[in-house]
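Lay summary

Proteins are chains of building blocks that fold into shapes. Our project writes down both the chain and a compact code for its shape. Here are two examples, one after the other.
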Amino acid sequence: MKTRLIKSADDQRMAEIIRTNLKAYKLDIPGTAYFDSNLDQLSTYYLADQAHQAYYVLTDDEDRVMGGVGFAKAEPFDDCAELQKLYLDDMVKGQGLGYDLVALVEGAAKKLGYSHMYLETHSNLAPVIHIYEKMGYRLIERPESVVHGGMDCFYIKDL
């Protein structure tokens, strides 16, 4: 498996992976990434401001997209990026790749000057919550400004 920055040819596949995962966990509801206006054009969103954000896709040996993860500036926190849209195709789950992707965006965010990483998730997503907690993310109270109103778990980590 390899990682690279997202490109427009990856948009449809990543939207499919994200929606499939959310639907499997009964999160194909308003207030989740399932209905994000930019979900079908992730490359356009993330490549528009590479000084503050990025999205990486995970590919197999034939360059087929098998998952991805991104980050962008987290408002209203200072020096903080938000870990966004960590999703894997079912075929590659259970191989430790989620840990690798989180570490990748943490390193990239740190290089851009961020000193903290924030994330929003849902209690239905127990497998990914396990990853976050094992990697040192700590549960915090719901911030006043939450992007996805359907999320019920909020974490932060010092980078």
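And here is the second example, written the same way.
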Amino acid sequence: MSKLDVLNDQDIRGRVTADAPLAPFTWFRVGGPADLLFQPADSADLASFLTRLDSNIPVIVIGVGSNLLVRDGGIDGAVVRLTARGFGKAVRETDDRIRAGAALPDKRLAAFARDEGLGGLAFFRGVPGTVGGALRMNAGANGVETRERLLTATAIDRSGTTHVFTNAEMGFSYRHSSVPAEMIFIEAVFAGVPSTPDVIQAEMDAVEAHRQAAQPIRDKTGGSTFTNPANGKAWELIDAAGCRGLRIGGAVVSEKHCNFLINVDDASGYDLELLGETVRARVLETSGVRLEWEIRRVGRFAPGQVVEPFLGQE
């Protein structure tokens, strides 16, 4: 089934939009349109859509867009954005377990666990994304990572088949999961530890205070730009390379935390990516370290945008 056929399929209950603007869905507020945007009603609707979509059409999943840079030429194929209504709930299953939908914001998972008197999940207050994104990249904050609390994760593949992955099967490493990219996470089960709401709230407050003091959270940014290299910190290498405050077009390296890029003046996606690559080049020159992107860059460049300055398109 082609993209246009899916648009007219009466069995699809979710919202299907052709040539859908994506910039409003990203924290950077940049990027071109998706050929097709699908917002499923629930997991059965998502499975139905995937089985009907031509297998040659690429599929990309986005969450709240906090760790995402969409290029100016837009995205080929279909973009799936899970909705809060269908995938944003959390329930307490047992004394120490919480089942959370993939579209649930991480900070709301932390708040739900607090209200249920379950500790161990307060770090999610400092993760600017959703449960699905946390599963995909083993998100963490304040020294704690998703893999330390996850029991199982459920995903749907391109054939509409549901898979349940144990923690060991997720293949977690630093800011990475080895689960195939075609798998779309729909929910997860986390283990907490008994605590009290007051104690958990204090932990959440400490996480949030650290974020507000150290990060430009009120700006149009995408979170941490590069992963920390082994035995080092990306921001220190960026600062040592003289990149704090560096600007290209409407994009600037944050003065507050130089591992953050900010859209300060109607930056394009290209401004932001070229700034990031310029930072990488300078760090490589001054330290010999090749920084790796933590921000996910997707889509195509707009006509006329030169890609030669880029260190690589990994």
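What can we say about the second shape? Residues 87-214 form a domain with the Uridine Diphospho-n-acetylenolpyruvylglucosamine Reductase; domain 3 fold (CATH 3.30.465.10).
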